[in-house]
C-alpha cells in the first residue's frame, strides 16, 4: 500500500440556527486548523440555489481563505466551467495566483452544481456541454500560456502563470478527458461512488503525459466523520445522513443537528438509497478510520484522499480532521 496525501473539501455548509457569516468564519477556522495539521490542500466547491451550501461565489471565497492562511494550497473542487466564460475564470484565478503565488489550484467540472432551472439562469446550454467543456479547458490553458502574449484576447492577470488544472468527475466521462489531456483526476466518491473504480481504471490505462503531468495522479473525495468513540462518530454522522435525505427529497434546507435514531426520519427505501450513495464514507474512532483508510487504499491505490466532513458542531468537525490526520500518520508509519 503506497502512502497518500490528505486534503479537505469544504462546501461552506450552512447550519440551522447559524448565519452565512458564521459559515464563512467556520470555513476559515477549518482551513487554519487543517493547515496546522499539514493537510495538502483546501478546496471549495461551486453550488447554486441551495440554502445548505454557501460556496456559490467560489473564487471570492477562495480569496478569503487564502488570505487567512499561509501555506496550505487553496482552490476549487471545483469550478463548474460551463457556468462561466473561460476568460473570466482565467482572470479570476490569475488574480488569485498573483495575490497568493504558488498556492492556488483550479479544479474543473462540467456539471451545473444545481437544478435545471438555476442552470438556465446561469446561461448554460445543455445541448453543447460535451463539446463546450473540453474546448473551454483548452482555452484556459491558452490564456495561462506565455505564448498568448501576442493574441488579441489575453487574460491579465493570468497570462504566463503556473496555475495547475485538475479534472473533476462523478462518472467515467471526465476520466477519458483527464487521461487525454494529461491532467490530475479527482473523483466525487462522496456523492457518486458507483463508477469510481471504472473511472480510475480508464484514467490509468489511457493517460497521456502532458506538460503539467508525466504520470497519472488520482484523487478520491470521500465523506469522513471521526470522533473519540465509534458511538459518538455514528451519532454525529446523522447530520450527514439527514443532508442526503434532503437531497433525495429535493429539500435544500440548512444542515441539521444530530439525532438519536435515523429510523425516525427516513423510510427503508430512503435509507437504502442514502447508504448506497455513502458506501465510501469513513465513520468511526481512530482505529476504525485507519482500517477503512487501509481497505480503501488497498482497493483504489490513490495518490490523495480528499475528506469532506459534514458535522454540525464545529469543534467536533475540527477534531474529526485531527483524527483523520492521526490515522493517516499511523498508516504511513506502518
UniProtKB/TrEMBL annotation:
Transmembrane segments: none annotated. Residues 19-113, 144-298 form the Luciferase-like domain. CDD domains: Flavin_utilizing_monoxygenases. Keywords: Monooxygenase, Oxidoreductase. It comes from the Bacteria. The keyword Oxidoreductase applies. The keyword Oxidoreductase applies. NCBIfam families: oxido_grp_1. This is Luciferase-like monooxygenase. It comes from Chryseobacterium carnipullorum.
Amino acid at each position: 500500500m503506497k502512502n497518500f496525501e490528505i486534503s479537505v473539501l469544504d462546501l461552506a455548509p450552512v447550519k440551522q440556527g447559524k448565519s452565512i457569516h458564521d459559515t464563512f468564519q467556520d470555513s476559515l477556522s477549518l482551513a487554519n486548523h487543517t493547515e496546522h495539521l499539514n493537510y495538502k490542500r483546501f478546496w471549495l466547491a461551486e453550488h447554486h440555489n441551495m440554502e445548505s451550501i454557501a460556496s456559490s461565489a467560489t473564487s471570492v471565497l477562495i480569496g478569503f481563505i487564502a488570505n487567512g492562511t499561509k501555506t496550505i494550497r487553496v482552490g476549487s473542487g471545483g469550478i463548474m466551467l460551463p457556468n462561466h466564460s473561460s476568460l473570466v475564470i482565467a482572470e479570476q484565478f490569475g488574480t488569485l495566483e498573483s495575490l497568493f503565488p504558488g498556492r492556488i489550484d483550479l479544479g474543473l467540472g462540467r456539471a451545473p452544481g444545481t437544478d435545471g432551472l438555476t442552470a438556465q439562469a446561469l446561461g448554460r446550454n445543455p445541448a453543447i456541454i460535451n463539446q463546450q467543456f473540453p474546448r473551454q479547458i483548452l482555452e484556459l490553458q491558452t490564456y495561462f500560456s506565455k505564448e498568448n502574449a501576442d493574441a488579441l484576447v489575453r487574460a491579465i492577470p493570468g497570462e504566463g502563470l503556473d496555475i495547475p488544472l485538475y479534472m473533476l468527475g462523478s462518472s467515467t466521462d471526465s476520466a477519458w478527458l483527464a487521461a487525454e489531456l494529461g491532467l490530475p483526476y479527482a473523483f466525487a466518491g462522496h456523492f457518486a461512488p458507483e463508477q469510481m473504480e471504472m473511472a480510475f481504471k480508464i484514467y490509468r490505462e489511457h493517460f497521456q503525459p502532458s506538460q503539467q503531468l508525466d504520470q497519472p495522479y488520482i484523487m478520491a473525495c470521500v465523506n469522513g466523520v471521526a470522533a473519540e468513540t465509534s458511538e459518538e462518530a455514528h451519532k454525529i454522522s446523522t447530520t450527514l445522513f439527514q443532508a442526503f435525505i434532503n437531497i433525495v427529497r429535493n429539500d435544500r434546507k440548512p444542515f441539521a443537528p444530530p439525532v438519536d435514531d435515523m429510523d425516525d426520519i427516513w423510510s427503508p427505501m430512503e435509507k437504502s438509497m442514502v447508504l448506497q450513495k455513502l458506501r465510501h464514507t469513513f465513520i468511526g474512532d481512530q482505529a476504525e478510520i485507519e482500517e477503512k483508510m487501509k481497505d480503501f487504499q488497498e482497493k483504489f491505490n490513490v495518490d490523495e484522499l480528499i475528506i469532506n466532513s459534514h458535522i454540525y458542531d464545529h469543534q467536533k468537525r475540527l477534531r474529526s480532521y485531527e483524527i483523520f490526520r492521526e490515522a493517516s500518520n499511523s498508516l504511513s508509519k506502518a
